[in-house]
Amino acid sequence: MTPHNDFAPGAKRSLLPLLFFIALFLGTGLYLHQQDVAYAFYQLPGHVAIIPALILAIWLHKAPLQQSIDVMIKGAGNSNIITMCIIYLLAGAFASVATATGGVEAAVNAGLSLVPAAWLLPGLFIIAALVSTAMGTSMGTIGALAPIAVGLANQAGLDQALVAGVLLSGAMFGDNLSIISDTTIASTRTQGAQMADKFRENIKIALPAAALTLALYIILASDGAPISISSVNWSGVMPYAAILVLAVIGLNVFVVLLLGIVLAAFQGALFAEYAIANLGKDIASGFASVQEIFLLAMLVSALSEFIKQQGGLQWIAAKIQHLANRLKLAGNKAQQLAIAALAFVSNLCIANNTVAIVLTADVAKTLAQQHQISPKRSASLLDIFACISQGLVPYGAQALLLGASFNISPWQVVSQSYYCLILFVIALTIVLLRPAAKLQQTTSRA
């Protein structure tokens, strides 16, 4: 590691556009939140807020305009980012087609049919966890389950904030663990890890946290009123089950998602009166649903290229390394904690776990490579701590949507986010107690 005081003056200056982006995005959200504007942190979308930051980066680059534009294009066209964006498109298309063919409703009803009324809290947690793991999106899970959960909470006379917290907990479980989650895609592609390896690494931490959370909800559960459930279309669950199995056994993610789209359309046509003529429109709708994260990932990568070329990322890594060395922990545990802190704090500022991962990915990869941390572990740490942070910020999309659905404050929602709090403790404990992971020289596979 180059000594942290040997960097050119431009290294620190190159961070100004990133800080400007964070200040603009976060500041606007905080101001609008004070004005009681609904979804305050999403009134200025991230992919729009970053444009002034890119203009500032070009100006600070102090090079001919065409040369600065070339730097921006190089960053936006990074092969890992483009691969990640294509996967986003396919994941969005699968979610859209599965929804149109009744897959989401089938998965929800299948879960509810197995849950006794007295076990509503642990049951909803399991359903939300399974649906979010299958769908790969916490927002999609909340959007599908929240209307049902509101009615169930009213029927059973349960505390609204507690039920909202249960949904948030289950949704963040799958958001962090799912093979097709955008956070999984971002963390594995940027760290050079295989998705199946990262899944196995993650589940060692997520499963104990989920088990403790489930035990807590069993303790909190009480007798509830009878719940009416629609008939279950078990064929609608097949595409979700298929992509999970195929992904876990290591099949290429592009093939997995394409097969998922085909299976969803096929079962819809056979069992749910789905018109195949609508398939193209539904796929296009899925593409549109990921437009914001697609553009933002490319633009953040473009901004990162300016920072990287001027030494800003190396300066950050050196500072973090300096702080980590002072912790005096055995092996590379201090550096693992540094990667975790990067993801957690970045997400507190951005309130978007995927963007937080993309922003901190290069620094995390540098720390991992220099301190013998395996790619699967650095990817797991990034994903876990970004998702923990996302599940605890009241201005995140998940808390805002749940607050609006249950007609309660987002602060009430995150105060009941027990899974994220338990996951935080479990993850820190495992990092501190387990042996350091050695770097494995493997070729990454999509």
Automatic annotation (TrEMBL):
Protein's organism: Rheinheimera maricola
Family designation: Belongs to the NhaC Na(+)/H(+) (TC 2.A.35) antiporter family.
Database matches in Pfam families: Na_H_antiporter (PF03553)
Keywords carried by this UniProt record: Antiport, Cell membrane, Membrane, Transmembrane, Transmembrane helix, Transport
Residues annotated as domain Na+/H+ antiporter NhaC-like C-terminal: 59-220
Subcellular location: Cell membrane
Domain of life, source organism: Bacteria
Keyword Iron-sulfur: no
Transmembrane domains' residue ranges: 15-33, 39-60, 81-104, 110-131, 203-220, 240-271, 283-303, 337-360, 381-404, 416-437
Topology in membrane: Multi-pass membrane protein
InterPro entries: Na/H_Antiport_NhaC-like_C (IPR018461), NhaC_Na-H+_Antiporter (IPR052180)
Ranges in coiled-coil conformation: none
Protein name (database record): Na+/H+ antiporter NhaC family protein
